User: Fold these one by one.
Assistant:
Number 1:
Amino acid sequence: MQDRTPPSSLENAIALQKFGVGQPVRRKEDDTLVRGKGKYTDDFNLPGQAYAFIVRSSHAHGVIRGIDTAAARSMPGVLGVWTGADLTAANYGPFTCGLPLKNRDGSPLLQTNRTALMTDKVRYVGDPVAFVVAGTLSQARDAAEAVVVDIDPLPAVTSAEAAAKPGAPQLYDHIPNNVALDYHYGDTAKVEAAFASAAHVTKLDIVNTRVAVVAMEPRAALASYDQASARYTIQVPTQGVAGNRMNLAKNILKVPNEKVHLLTANVGGSFGMKNINYPEYVCILHAAKALGRPVKWTDERSTSFLSDSHGRAGQMHCELALDSEGRFLAVRISGYGNLGAYITGVAPSPLSLNVGKNLASVYRTPLMSVDIKTVLTNTTLMGAYRGAGRPEANYYMERLIDRAADEMGIDRLSLRKRNFIKPAQMPFSASSGVTYDSGDFQGVFNKALEISDYANFAKRRKESRKRGRLRGIAIGSYLEVTAPPGVELGKIVFEADGSVRLITGTLDYGQGHATPFAQVLSAQLGVPFESVKLEQGDSDIVHTGSGTGGSRSITASGMAIVEASRLIIEKGKRAAAHLMEAAEGDIEFGDGRFTIAGTDRSIDIIELARAMREGKMPEGVPSSLDVDHTTEPVPSTFPNGCHVAEVEIDPETGIVQIVRYAGVNDFGTIVNPMLVAGQMHGGVAQGIGQALMECVSYDESGQPITGSFMDYALPRAGDIPMMEVGDHPVPAKSNPLGTKGCGEAGCAGSLSTIVNAVLDALTEYGITHIDMPLTPERVWRAIRDAKAKVA
C-alpha cells in the first residue's frame, strides 16, 4: 500500500533547497534518453500501416507538362499513387505565412500559397510532385522511381540579389521581381541627416550564409483516419501541438479543431525547423483517409537537405555613423533576404523584422533604418533557425563596431564602453521600437573580460608566435528580443496516486523542460519535485499554447505555472478553511502546507487534494484543486551577454582553432544553471558551425552542391572548445519569475566573436573582412592574396 503520510514543513523546506529555483538539478529525462529508451516519431507503428515515398523534382525550375503514374500503380504492393491534381480536388488549403508583415507602401506581403504537391510548376530541386503508398517502404520507393515526371526546364536563380533584378527568372506571375516583401523600418530622413553630420561612417558588405538545420532526428509522421468519427490523427515531431493542430485543421484540412488529434513524443532537435506543417503530412493524411489504413513517412538525410527549411541567408550592406568621439549616431542596414521558393511559417520575419528589432543591441544608438527585400529564389524554403534573425543582427552590429574602432584608431573595448546603455537609463526605449526593462551591460562586459583573462592575452599571443601560429581575440556583446508575445497554458491536475500533472503548451525538443518546470511548480506549491509529471505532446490535453520558439519556454510556461499556482492556493485556502473549521482569512500557505495562523494545525497540499477529491465539499467550496488556466500574452524579454573568443591560425594551411571561449550572460532569474550552461554550449556550437564551416551551396542551374555530409560540414567534438560560463543576472521585470530566454543566446554571442577573433589574428596582413564560413581554404587564400599585394 502506498504511504500517504504527508511531508512535514521541515521536509518540504529541505526538499525546496535541493530542488528549488536556482539549483542545478539533473534533467529528469536523461536516464531514459541516454539509455536509448526515448520514443521518437519513427518508433511508433500502427497495425496494418502502409508506407509513403515522395516523388520530387530534379529540376530547380520548370513547367510540369505531365506526370505518368501508370507503371507505378501496377507495381507489387502499391496501394495508391497521388498527384497534385488529386489533392487539389480534395480542396486542401495552402501553406501560407500568417504574420501581418507589410511592405514599405503599407500593402501586405505577397503570399506564395504553396500547395502540398505542385500542379503547374516546380520551383526548387526537391519540390514534391507526387507520392506513392505501398505495403512496404521498399515497394513504395521502387514505385516512386517508376513515376515519370515531364518537366520543361526554365532558367533558375538562387541569389536573392540576382532574383530581384529586372529580367531575372520569375517564380510567380503575381510577384514582380520575386520580391515578396519590401520591408522598411525607421525614419529615413532623420537617419540620412545623422549620417550626413557624422564625423565617421563605417561601411561593410556582409554575407550571412545559408545553413541547413540537420537536426539529429529527421522529420517523420504517422497518420490515421477514423471513418466513424471523421477524425484525423497524426504523430509528428513539432515544437508545440496546440498551434500546429490549429493550423493544420483550420487552414489546411479545413475541419474543426476537434477533428484533428496531433501527437508529439520525444523530438530529436528542431531549432525552428519542425515548427511548421509540411506537404508530406498532408499527403499521408489524405492517403490514410482514402485507404482506410495508417500511413507512415520518414524522411532520409539526403532528402532532409532538400525538404527541411533552411536558415539565415542574407546579403546586407551595413553602415554605422559615429561622431568625432566615437559615439553612435545611427545605424542602417539594407539588402536582401533569401526566402527560397515558398513562404510558410514565419519565414520573412528572421530576414527583416527580427533584424531590425535586435540591431541596436546593448548600445545607445539613437536612430536606425532597415531596408530589406525578402526575395523568392529557386532554392529550398527558408524558416526559423536558432535565433531567427537575432544572431544575424548582433553579428552585423559587432562587425561594424570592430571595423569602426580600427578605422578611427579607437580601442575596441573603449568604443563599446562609450556606447553602452547604462542601468540608470532603464527602462530604455531603443531605436528598434522596443523598450528594454532591465540590464547591466557594462557589468556583464567587465565580468567577461575577467573570466576570459583578457588582460594576459598579449602573453598568449607571443607564445603562439613562437610556434608559428597567429593568435587573435575578440569580445562582443549581444542582446536578444526574445519570447514573442503569446498566451500559454498552465493546467495542473492532482492525481489520486499523489502525483501532480503539469500540462503546458510549450514543448521540449531537447531543452529539458521537465526539470525546470517541476522546480518552479515545487517552489510555488511545495509539492515534491519527484511528483511532478510534465505533459506537452497531446493536442487533446494541450488545448492552448504558443509552443516553444523564440526562447520563450521558461518565461511563458513559468508565468502560466505561477498564475495557475496562485489560483490553486486560493482554492486551497477555501477548502482548508472548511476542513479545519477555520475562517478563510486565517489560513496561511507556505512550504506546501495550509496552516491556521498562530496554530500548529495544518494540512499538506497533496493531502488536501486527496481530501477534496474523496470528500463531499459543500456549496461554495471547491471540490478539486485542479486548474486549467491560460495566461494573457506573455511579454518579451531581453537576455544579453558578452562573449570572448580566442583563436589560433596556422598561416600555412588556414586552419582555425578556437583555443579559448568565455561567455557571461544575463538571463535574469536562472531556474537551473546547469541547463542554462548547456543551452549556451549548444548555441555556441551552432555558431561555430556557421562561422567556420557550414554553408548550403547551389550551382548556377539551382542544383544543390551540399546535399549530404560528404559536402556539408558540421562541427565535431574536437572543434568545440572548453567554455568558461559566467552569469550576471538582472531579473526581468516583465514576468513574475524574472526570467529571460536563454536557448538561442549562444548563437547570438558566438558568430561575431569568432569571426572578429579570426580577423584580429589576421591584422598583420591587413585583412579586414572575410565572409562566413571562414574555412581553411578562405583563410589561406586571404593570407596568400595579402602577401601577394605586399610583394
Number 2:
Amino acid sequence: MTRQRIGRPVRASSFVGRRQETAEVKRLVAAHRLVSLTGTGGVGKTRLVLHAVPRLARAFADGVHIVQLAGVRDASLVPLALIEALNIRDVSGRSPVRVLIDQLQDRESLLVLDNCEHLADACSRLVETLLAETDRVRVLATSRHPLDVTAQHVLEVQPLATPTPGEPLPPKPALEYPALALFADRAAAVLPGFSLTADNQDAVAALCRRLDGLPLAIELAAVRMRALGVQQLLERLDRRHRLLADSADSASDDVLSQHRTLRAAVDWSHDLCTPEEQTVWARASVFAGSFDLGAAEEVCAGPGLDRDEMVDAVAGLVDKSLLVRDGDAVHARYRMLESIRQYGLDRLREDGGRAEAVARRRVRDWCLDFVEECERRWFGPDQPELVRRLHAESDLIRSAFEFCLNTSGELRAGLKLAGHLWFFWFATGALVEGRYWLERLLAAAPEPTVARARALWSLALMLLSQGNAVRAAPLVEEAHELALRLGDEAEAAHTYFGRGGALLISGDYTRARVVYEEALSRPPREGESMSLVGFKYVELAHVLAIQGEFDRAMALCEDFRQVCLTYGEQWIHSYLLRILAFAEWAKGDQTAARVHARECLRLKRAVGDVFGTGMTLELLAAVHARDGEGRPAAVLLGAAKRIWQDAHVALDRTPSHGPVRTEAEEGARALLGGGFKSAYQEGLDLTSDHAVAYALGERESAARPVLDSPLTRRETEVAELLAEGLTNQQIADRLVVALRTAEGHVERILSKLGFTSRSQVAVWTEGRRAIRP
C-alpha cells in the first residue's frame, strides 16, 4: 500500500519562477541519497523545497516528511523533531536515534530537513547515521552551508535572474526574468491591477538588480507599492544600500553583497514599521516555530505596547510580509522567516539581553498557563481539538523546556510544565518525548516538591506504556510516599493508577485488584484528575473480567461511562468500551462485544490513541474468530501487529493482553488454513487509519488502496489546482468563479481532510495519483 505523509508543512504564497531549479531538485533526489540546497538567507531555499515536494511524493512509497528545524534550538532535539514528523509512536524505551533507524530500516521515504544551518553538526551526524543504517531513505536538506556528510550533492540556490544593466528588455520581460515576475506578482497583491508596462519595466528591472534578485528582498520592497511608486522605491533603496555598503568593508564577494542587500531591505522595512509593530517584531522573535494571536498577546504586550494594540500590530506585520500567516480560516497562526526572526532577535538583544530574557520567561509562563488549561479541559468534549493545539505548539513548548533547563531558578517550573503534559504524551503515544523531558528534569531537580512527585508518577506512566514495570514500580511508589509526606492528597491519589498498573501488566492480578479497590473506596480528592479516576474504574474492571467476574466488571464500566457521557469525554470512554467489550467477549456475548469494540475504535480514532487502537483491533479479531469469520480476524491481527512492530513493544504478549491475541490467532488459523498468511499480510500492509476503517466496515478490501474521497467533484478539482501551486485568485480565474467562492472551497477541503496547509493537500493529491489504477 502506498502511504503518503507530510510532516509539519508551512503555507506558502504563489510560486514564481524556479522551473529549472525544481526540475533539477527532482533529478538530484532521484540520483543521490543526500541533496543539500544551500544559499544565502532570503534566496528562497525553503520556498523551492516546498514547491518541489508535491512533485517528489509519488516516487516514495512511504511518504515525504518535512521537518521544520527553524524552531529547534537545542541540537539534542533534532532526532525528536524527526520522530514527531514521522508520527512515530515508539514505546520501546530505546534512544531516539535507534528508534529512527529501526523505523526507517525498510521504508522508502524522503526526509526534508529545512533550515539546518544553526544545527549543522547535529544534522550532519544524524543524516550520516541514517544513510549508513538504512538502504532506501533519502534526505533533502536546506542550509546556508553544506552539511558535513560525505557523498552529499550540493545545489546552490542562486538569486533570481535579473536583466544586465544597459541591456534592452525583451518584449515580455517577466517571462524571461523571474525576479521581475516575482515583483509584479507581489506588487499586484497590494496594488490591484499593477503589471509590468513599457513605462515601468526599466525601473522594476533596476530595482530588482539593486536587490540582487533576492526573493525575500524583492517581496519586502513590493509591499511598499501600497504607498510608493517604482521609481520612489528605487531611489530610497539605492540610497540606503549605499549607506550600508559604505559602512562595511569593500569586499566584492557576492554573498557579502547579497547579505548587505537583504540587510538594507530589512532595515528599511523596520524603519517603516510603527513603533508598535517594531515592538512585536522584536519580542515575537523569541517564538520557536509558529504561534497564534493569544500567545503573541501574552508575550509581546507590555511596556510600550498595550494588549488592545496587538491585533493591528500583527496585521501590519503580515501586510508588510514580515509575518507569514499560516493555519486555516478557523485557526490563524503566524511565523517569521528565519532572516526576519534573526533580525528581530538582534534588535531585542540591544540592551544586553535583558529584554530577551523577559520575553523568554513570558513564553515559559504562557506555555505553563496553556498546558494547565488543556489539562483542566481534557476531561470533556474538546479532546481532539486539544490534541491538535498541543501538537501545533510543540516547538514553543520545547523552547520553554530548554529555557527552564538552561536558566537558573527555572527547574521547578520545568518540572511543573512536564507534569501537566502527562495526559498528552500518554494519550497520543508520544512517550519518547515525554521520557526525554521528564528524565532530564528529574535528574536536574532532586528537591522534594509536589512538582517532582507529579513528574515521578508521570514518568512511571510512560514506562508502563512501554511495558517496563520493573523501573516504573519504584518511581510510582516514590511519588506516592513523597506526595503523602508533603500532604498533597490529590497527587497521592494520582499514583494509584500507576501502582496498580505495574502489578497488572506483570500478571499479579490479586494485588492489583487490592490497589484499585482501595483507590475506589474513597471519593475523588479536590484537584484529582477525572481521567485518572476513570482509569481506576477501567483497570479494576479489567482485573475483574480477567478473574471471571464479568457482571461486576461490566457494571463498573457502565457506571463511569455515564460520567463520560455527561462530560462529553472520549479518551477514558474508549477504554471503558474496550473493557466492556472484553468482558462481553469473555462471557460469550459476541454481538454486544462487536458493537462496543467498534464504538471504542471510533473514539480512539478521534483522539489518536494508537496503542489503544492496537489492543482493540486484536479484541475485535477475537470476536470475528469466535463468529467463524477467519479472514477479517487475520487481517485485524496483522494490522495490530503492524502497530506493535512500529512501536517496538509486545503488549500483545503481556499476561493481561496476550490471551486475547492467542485465541484470535488460533481461531483464524483453524478457519483459514493456508489462507491465513495472505490475509495476515494484508493487515500488516495497512496503516493504523486504514485498519480502523476496515474494522468499522468502511473498507471492503484490505488489499485494494482506497480512492474514495470525502471531497465533492468540484473540491477535487480545486485540490488538483492546489497541487499545481495555484493561489486562490488563480484558482478563481481558472474556474471562472468569485475569489470568495474559491476561498470557500479551499477552506472546506482543509477541514474535510483534517489538514492545516495547502502543502498537505498537494501531497495528498499526488499520493492519490500514484495509487490510482
Number 3:
Amino acid sequence: MRVLKFGGTSLANAERFACAADISVSNIEQSQVALVLSAPAKVTNNLVAAVQQTVRGLDAESSLEDIDGIFKALIAGLKLQYSNFNDALALTQVAASLATLREYLYGVKLLSQCPENIEAKILSTGEKLSIVCMEQLLLARGFKVEVIVPQDKLVGQGSVLEASVDIDASRARFEQDPIKTDHIYLMPGFTAGDEQGNTVVLGRNGSDYSAAVLAACLYADCCEIWTDVDGVYACDPRLVKDAKLLKTLSYPEAMELSYFGAKVLHPKTIAPIAQHHIPCLIKNTKNPEGEGTLIGGLTSKTQAEVKSLSELSGMTMINVSGPGMKGMVGMAGRIFETVSRAGVSIALITQSSSEYSVSFCIHSYDAGKARLALNSEFNLEISNQLLEPIEMRDGLAIVSLVGDGMRKANGIAARFFMALAQASVNLVAIAQGSSERSISAVIDESKANEAIKASHNIFFGKQQYIDLFLLGCGGVGAALVEQIKRQKEFLAERQIEIRVCGIANSRQMLLDSEGLSLTNWADDLGASNIEFSLTALEDLVKNSHIINPVIVDCTSNDNLASQYVDFLGSGFHVVAANKKANTMSMDYYHELRLTALKTRRRFLYDTNVGAGLPVIENLQNLLSAGDQLERFNGILSGSMSYIFGKLDEGMSFSQATAQARDNGFTEPDPREDLSGMDIARKLLIIAREAGMDLTLDQVEVEEAIPAGFDASGTNEEFMANLPKADAYFADLQATAAQEGKVLRYIGQIEDGKCKVSIAAVPESDPLNKVKDGENALAFYSRYYQPIPMVLRGYGAGSEVTAAGVFADVLRTLNWKQEV
C-alpha cells in the first residue's frame, strides 16, 4: 500500500485533479494506492472568512459564492476532459454541502459565536467535496473506489480545532475491515473524529498529517506528499536561486527542519512516519518524473556535514533574570511549567552559565499569554526585586543549521557565526541541540534573509555574488562597466558573478536588485527619470537582502568621500578611485578604518596611487611583515611623466603640455595637473599608510610652473600664456643635461616629511628612464636597501585605472569557497 497526499498547487484545480489521478493510476502498477486530498486552493480561506464574518454579524454569502464557483469550475473542467464524468451527481453534492453550510452559519448568526464542533464541520467541507470530485473522476476512468470516512476511522484527541490522532486506536478500527485489494482508497485530509464520531480537525498542515497517520494505520510501504516544489531544499529556493535539492533526509533531520520552520514539512507530519519507520517521499505534482526528496531511516555514506538551513520567523524572546535565579532549585521548572499551563510552546531555550538568567523563544502570537502567566506566577519575586521585570523582545527569527553529519564535524559553529558576521547579522542568542545535529541562532527578523543567504554561501554555495553600485560613470566608471561585461564568462567559470545593481551620475541613476542589463546602460541612464539618491540605494540593498553590496566611487567628489563611514556602517564594502577620503583629516582617516574593522567590510583604494599598479596592497603587505619605510621617491602622475619625458626629447614645456592635453593625459584644465596637488594627495596617502601622522597642508608642494608665473584667466588664456615658461624649463633642462641628469616631477618622503618638486635625476636613479605616461615608485625600506623595491607601469588612462578598481572589487569576496 502506498499513501499519496495531494495538496494545492499553482495548477488550475481541474488540471491538478487530473494530474493527481494520473499519478495515482501510474502507482497502481506497483502497489495498491490510497489518496488523501486537501481542499482546492482558496476554499478553506473562504470557509474561515465565512465563520469570522458571520460571528461579526456580517453577510458571508460572497465567501460561499466563491466556494460554489471554485467547485463548479472544477467540475466543468473535469467534465470537459472526461465525458462520462458524473457532473450532475458532483454538483448535487456541492449544492447539498453549501445548503448545510448556510444552515450552520444561520445558527452561528443567531448565537453571535461559533461553537468549535460546528466550526470543525464547516472548515472540513472543502476536503469532503474534493473527495466527491476525485471519486467521480476515478469512476469515470473505470476504477473501483472506496471512500474512507475519517470520522469513523481516525480517533482524534485533544482540541477540536487542533486535534491529534491516536494511531494505535485508529489501527484497531482499520483492522476490523479488511482492505479491498482491487480498490483505490480515498480519504479527505484535515479531518478525524472523536470517540463519539464527531468531526474534529487537525490544524495547520492537517492534510499532510492525515496522510502520515493513514500510512501508519495501513502499514503502508511509503507515504508520498505531492506538492508544488520538487522536494526539500537546502534552504528556501525562492530566496537562494541555486539552493540544492536534497535527495535524502533522515527522520531526525526532517524532524529538526520541520521544527525550525521548513515550509514543506511539519513536525506533526514527520512524527508518525518516523515513529513507524515509513519512508516518506516529497514530490512535485507538476514534475512527477523528478527524483524528489526521500525521508527515511538510513543516512548517506557521503553524508554532508550540514544538510539544510531553516528559518523560523515571528518569534519573541523572553528573558527571566535576577539575583533570585542563582542557586534557586526548581526555578527553571517553575518557569517552563507556567508557560506550559498557559498553552504556549517553547521553540528554543538558552541559559547563562552564571545562572542569573534563563531565556527562551516563543511564537509572537503567544507573547501576551506568556507575559500574563509569568507575571502572575512570579509576582512576589518581582515585587521583592528577587527577579527583574519580565523582559520580552519581539521581531526575532531563529536560523538553524541541520545535519546528521554535524555530530562528527569540527568548526561548523565557527563557520556559521563567521557567515553571519560577514553579512552584518548580530546574534541575540545561540543554542545547540543535545543531539548535535542542529545549531540555532536567534537574530533580528529583518536580517533573516541575509543570514540564510550568507550561510548557504559558505556551506553550499558554488556561485559567489558581488552586487556592485557604481557612482560616477565617466572615463574610469564607463571602462569598469565594459570590463565587467567583457569578463562575465571568465568569472562565471570561477563561480563568480558581478551584478551591477546600480549606476549613477550626479543627476540620474539606474537601480535593479537583480542586476542591470549592461548592453545599452549609458542610453538607459540618460533616459532614466530617477534622481540620484543615496537613500534609495541603501533602501534597495535593505529590501532586497543583498549580502555583499559594494559601492564603487569613481568620482572626485568631496561629499561622497565624506560619507564612506556611513556606507561602511550600512553594510557596504567601499572601493574608491576617489582620493579625497584618504586625504581628509586624520580623525576621519582612522574612523574609516575602525568602522571597516567593526563592520567587517572592506575599504579598498589601490587605485588612489599608481592607477592599476598594486601599490597600496604591496606596501601594506610589506609593513605587515615587519618592514619599515625609510625613504620614498616616485613619479606619481602619468600626465607629468609624459610632459617631462618630452622635455628629454627637446620639446618645449608648453608644447609638451598642449600635446598631453590633446591626448587626454591631463585634466581638461592642465593647471590641475601642474599644481602638483594630485601628486601631493598620492604622496600623503603613501605616507599615512607607512604610519606617518600628516595632513595635506603639511605636504610641501612646488608647482610645475615657474614661481610668479601668471596662471590666471580661462583655460585657453592660460595655454596661450604658457610659452612664457619655456625658457625657465629650457634652462633647468640644460643644467641637468650638463650633469648627465634629466628633469622629473617627483614626490619624496624622507625624514617624516613629504615634498613634491621638480628634480634632476641621475642615470643611476630608478626614475631616470620613466616617461611616456609611466608611473614609477621606489620604496627604500629596512628590507629593501640600498636597492629599492620599484613598481613601474602606466599610471594614466581609464582602462588601467578601471582594471585596478576591478581588482579591488574582486577582493571584496569575503569568504573562501569550501571544498
Number 4:
Amino acid sequence: MIELQSSYNATMVVLSCFVASIAAYTGLSMSLQYAAASKGRSRLAWLACGIAVMGAGIWAVCFYEINAYRWSTGVEYDYGTVILALAIAAAAAALVLRAVSQPKLRRGSLLARGGIAGICAAVLPYAGLQAMRASLHPRFEAGTFAWFTLAVAASFIVVLWIAYKFQTSRGPKRKAIAGLLLGTAFTASIHIGLALVSWTSPEELLTAGQSDSSAMISFFLGFATLFVVGIAFAAIFMERFWKAQMRRQLERDMRIESLFRHSQDAVFSYNLEGKLLDANLAAFRLTGYEWDALSKLRLRDMISPEYQHTVAVNFQHTVTGQSRNFDCALIHRGGRRLEVNNTNVPVLVEGQVVGVYTIVRDITERKQAEWQMNHMAHHDELTGLPNRRLFEQQLIKAIADQQQDGQSAAVLFLDIDRFKLVNDSQGHDVGDLLLRSVADRLSEAVKHAGIVARLGGDEFSVLLTGGITREDAQAIAARINRELDIPFSLRGKDVHITASIGIALFPEDGDSLISLMKNADTAMYSAKENGKNTYNFYDLSMNDSLFERVQLENELRKALDRGEFFLVYQPQVELASGKVVGVEALIRWQHSTKGLISPAEFIPLAEETGMIVPIGEWALRTACMLARRWSLSEVGPLRMSVNLSSRQFVSPDFAESVERVVRETGMPPELLDLEITESMTMDVNRSIETLRQLKTLGVSISIDDFGTGYSSLSYLKSFPVDRLKIDQSFVRQMHSETKDRSIVATIISLAHNLNLQVVAEGVETLSQSIFLAEQGCDEMQGYYISKPLKAFDVEDFILTKSAV
C-alpha cells in the first residue's frame, strides 16, 4: 500500500459554496413564506419541497467537494452509500428548516436541532468518502473525528441561532444573509472534514481509469445543480408573485375590514350556528346595544315575533351558500320598532361556508313614506275615510266573499242635503269642518257593522257585510238620519243639514260593483225627490224616474239657449191705499214638447247643477229691461222684485254683475228690489259685506220667507235691508192657528221697530187682508190681489186699477 497524492480544484469549491447558499435560501423561502401562508397538506408539501431543495443542494456540495480533488487514481462509487449521504443531507436540512420556521425558537430546541444538524454535517463528508470503495481507502484518526464533530455541532448551534434571528424580519436581504450563512457553514464543514482524511491504494490500481459509477455520479451532480438553481429561480419568481398576491389579498382584506367597520349600514358576523361573532359601530347605533350586551343575544332576540320564522329560513338558505335579501322588523333596545332590510351573505373560505354576514339597513322612514303614500292613495285627505278607490276594492272583495259564503250585503249611498248652501254661504273652510264632522258621525253610527267612505264632494257611502239583512240596513240608515239631523256646532254657529240615503242589497239589487253602486245612487236620488232627510231602498221603478231626471237636466241646459224661459209678475199693493206699488218677477219654463214645467221641479235641479246662475242673471236682466220700459210708459215707475239664488248671492262678483245689468239696461236702481232668503245670510260677515255693496248701487233689499230661517233674526239689526216678506205659510193659517196670528203680528211689530217695511205673501181672502191692515202691514201680494201675470196683462191690470 502506498499513500496517494491529490491536487485541489478551487473552482469546484467556489461552486460548492454558491450552490449551498442558493439551496439554503430557496429552502428558507419555501418553508418560511409559502408554508407559513398555508395550512394542512399544503403546508406540509411546501415544507417538504424546501427540505428537498436544501438537502439536494447540501448533498451536491458534498460530492462537489469530493470531486474538487484531482485524484491520481480512478474513483468509483457505491450507490447505496450515495443514497445514505443524500438522506443525511436531507435530515440536516429538515432540522435546520424546522428550527428557523418556528414562531419562537426555544433554547432546548436550538441546542437539540442545531447540535444534531451539526453532527449530520460532520458525518456527511465521511459518508460520501465511504461511497468511494475498492480503489481508495480513507484514513483518519478517531480522536480527530470526534473533536471535529463536536466543533461542527457547536458551530451549527451558533449559526442556527444567527440564521433564526436574521429570518424573523422576513426581509429579502436578511433571508439572503441567513441563506449565505447556512450555505457557507455546510460547505466549510464538508471541506474541512475532507481535508482531515488521507488516502492509500494498492500499487497495481494506480493506473485505473474513470469507472461507470463515477460518470453516473457526475450526471447526478449536474442534475442536482440544475434542480437547485432552477428551483431557486422559480422561488424568486414565485416570491415576487406571492408578495404581489399577498399585497392584493391584504388590500382586499383591508378594504373588507374598512367596509365592515365604517359602513353606514349595520353589519353582523355570525357563525353557522347563529352565534354573533362581531358587529360594527353602525350595528350598535341601530340596535342601541353595546357589544357586551349584544354578544349575549340570540339571533331571534332582536327580531319582531312575526318575522322570526322568515329570518330563520333565510339564515338556513345562506348557510347552504345562497345570498338572501328580505325585509323584517327589529326591536330596538328602547322598545321601538324598526323596519329594516336584510342582506345575508355567506362567508366562503376555500369553497366552504364558514359563517354569515348580515347587512342591515334601516328603512323605517321609507316604509312610513310608502305607508303614507298608500294611505293617501286609498283614503280621503279631508276626512281620513277610505276614498272611492279603496271602497270599490273592498266592495269587489266583499262581493267575492259573499258569493262564496252565500251571505248578503248592502251598499248605502248618502248625499248631504243643503250642503252646497252651507259651503257657498259660509265658506269652504266651514264646509270642510262640516264634512269632517259628518264623517265622524257616520263612523259612530255605523261602528263595526261596515266601512264608511267618502266618494267625493258631499257624497258618502257605506258597505255593510257579514250577512246583513234588509232590517239591519234599514236600522243603520235610520240611525244615520237621526245622527245627521242633530245641528252641528261649527265655529260658534249651529248648522243644520240632513242626508238622503239610497240602499242597494246584494244580491237582490245587483251582483257586481257597477250594478250595486248605480242602483244605490238611483235610490239616493229617489230619496231626495221624496223630501230628503230619508232613505229609500232601490226599486226597479226608480230607473224610469232617474232617466226622466237625467233627461230633464239635459233639457234644462238647452232651455236658456232655446228661449224657453219666460217671466210672470205678481202685483204687490199698498194696504193703506190699494195702489199697485210693485211686482215680483217669477220664472217659468215652457218646454217645447212637455209644456209648462213647474218651478218646484226645475229650480232645485238648476240649483244642484249650477245652471241657476246663468238663468238667474237672465231673469234679472229681463226684469230690469221691462221695469225700464214701464218707467217710461203710462204704467209709470214700479218696484221690480227679483228673487236671488244662494249660488248667485255668494258669488264673489255678484255685486259687480248687478251693477253691470242695471247700467246696461238703464233701469233706475231705486226701482230694483232684490229678494234673499234667511238661509243665504248664514255667513253673517260675508252677507253684510255683499248687502252693503248692493245698497251702494241704490237698490233695495228684501228678506223673503221671513220666519222660516235659523240665524238671521239675531243679526237682523246689522243687515242693511229695507223690508221683510212674511212667509205665506203663516198668512194662510192666521184664522185657524192662533200662534200664526201671533207670529205675523210679532213680525210686523219687529219690522216697524227696526224701520223696515213689511210685505205679506200668499194673501187669498178678504179677512186675511183686513187682519194685516189692522196690524199695520204695509204691503201684500197673493191671489186675493192677482195671480202672477204676463207683462202685457200686468199693464192692463195696473191701468184698469188706476181707472177705478
